Amino acid sequence: MIKIPFLLLGLFCLFLSLLVAGGSAGALGIFEAEKGPGLGLAALCFFCVLPCYSYAILTCEVLQLGAVSGRLQTVVALVGSIVGLLFGLYFIVKAITLLSVMLALFLAVPFGTIAYMVIWGTFDTGTSRIVLSLFMTVQIIGAIFLVVAAPTIVKNGKLVALTAVTLAFAFILGLLHGLVPNPLVSIVDALAALVISIVATIWMLPLLIGGILSLVRVVRAVA
């Protein structure tokens, strides 16, 4: 039997982790990619939308919201996937551009290297460590609540994969920030943001296809 209070708590924790990543990225100016703990955190926030959406749909199904939920899911899937693809392309282009500029400057000894060091040579790993730790903690707590609410969730490969990949990206991002020498962290962070954005964009494609097919079915049913 599904325990709805735990399901809602788990969903709340997932959205809270999204707010942690997104709020931190916005507050620290990461979307400008010129300060704060890097573009990787913003890309992680973008990817986190996928598990939040998937678990929200699961919650609607459990609460048996009926036909309204189905139509709403169709609209959200279609609009959300289109917006998600646009954001994904934005992050990919931004990460590639940023990475290209940083590498070009870093390798252009000596004046380019000096310019790189002035702009991106210092990386706030302390802030990134705090934000990523909080993000992972809330994500894990949310996953525990969801499993307690509905143990059968572990049989849903898509949901498990989304949760695992989200946590893996956060862990790897934090690991890179800690292992790489500080002057090079901005470069590996941009590279990580590129990988995360590509994976998230690819994952949006089935959502877009599903939204289109659902819309076709709804139109046929109405007609």
UniProtKB/TrEMBL annotation:
<feature type="transmembrane region" description="Helical">
    <location>
        <begin position="99"/>
        <end position="119"/>
    </location>
</feature>
<feature type="transmembrane region" description="Helical">
    <location>
        <begin position="75"/>
        <end position="93"/>
    </location>
</feature>
<keyword id="KW-0472">Membrane</keyword>
<feature type="transmembrane region" description="Helical">
    <location>
        <begin position="191"/>
        <end position="216"/>
    </location>
</feature>
<protein>
    <submittedName>
        <fullName>Uncharacterized protein</fullName>
    </submittedName>
</protein>
<feature type="transmembrane region" description="Helical">
    <location>
        <begin position="159"/>
        <end position="179"/>
    </location>
</feature>
<keyword id="KW-0812">Transmembrane</keyword>
<feature type="transmembrane region" description="Helical">
    <location>
        <begin position="131"/>
        <end position="153"/>
    </location>
</feature>
<feature type="transmembrane region" description="Helical">
    <location>
        <begin position="39"/>
        <end position="63"/>
    </location>
</feature>
<keyword id="KW-1133">Transmembrane helix</keyword>
